[in-house]
Amino acid sequence: MRHYTIEGFSLTQSVAVMLARARYLIIAEMDAALKDLDITTPQMGILFAMQRGLASTPFEISKVLSVDTGLMTRMLDKLEAKGLLERSRRMDDRRMVDLVLTKKGGEVTAEIPMIAPEVLNARLKKFTTTEFEELGRLLQKFMEE
After folding, report:
1. Counting Cβ atoms within 10 Å, is residue 40 exposed (0-12), middle (13-18) or buried (19+)?
2. DSSP for residue 34
3. Angstrom distance (rounded) from CA 81 to CA 74
4. SS3 letters for the chain?
5. Percent of the chain at pLDDT exceeding 90
6. Chain mean pLDDT for the chain
7. Residue 41: CA atoms inside 13 Å, Cβ hemisphere, count?
8. Backbone Cα Rg of the chain
9. Is residue 3 pLDDT above 90, yes or no?
């Protein structure tokens, strides 16, 4: 089914622009809420993915978070400089890098569940439970290949 036409296309009403604006709102609000932890929303994603065991290498985290490897390297550099994670090369394959949360990184990551749900709930406050579930379902459908 074709939902857009050349004649009726409005950039500001396109799904792409609306999703980008929604993402920007969430990131801005989350960044403000994470300020005291001295991390950004993308950095939160890295720490949380590591803590939850979803990924332990830069490549795995790139896949989980849909971030290109160049940007991932820069974010890992910042997290390492803050003392939140450590990188180590594997002895059996020096090309592979493993990531481990430091004690400080674990402490910071433990604070995320107190912050992130509040930010997201504030953004979703006008949604009923049914609308929230439908939004999730529709986004999943949108991302299917």
Report:
1. middle
2. H
3. 11
4. CCCCCCCCCCHHHCHHHHHHHHHHHHHHHHHHHHHHHCCCHHHHHHHHHHHCCCCCCHHHHHHHHCCCHHHHHHHHHHHHHCCCEEEEECCCCCCCEEEEECHHHHHHHHHHHHHHHHHHHHHCCCCCHHHHHHHHHHHHHHHCC
5. 78
6. 93
7. 17
8. 18
9. no
Please say whether the beta carbons of 101 and 50 come within 8 A: yes
- What is the domain range of residue 70? 11-143
**Is 5 inside a domain boundary?**
no
Interval 44-53 mean pLDDT: 94
Flag whether 128 is in a domain: yes
Counted domains in the chain: 1
Model confidence, pTM: 0.85
98 is a domain residue = yes
Which pair of tokens denotes residue 96? 């592979």
Alpha carbons within 13 angstroms on the beta-carbon side of residue 114 total 8
| Residues 15-27: tens digit of each pLDDT | 999 999 999 999 9
What CATH code is carried by the domain that includes residue 45? Answer: 1.10.10.10
102 in a structural domain = yes
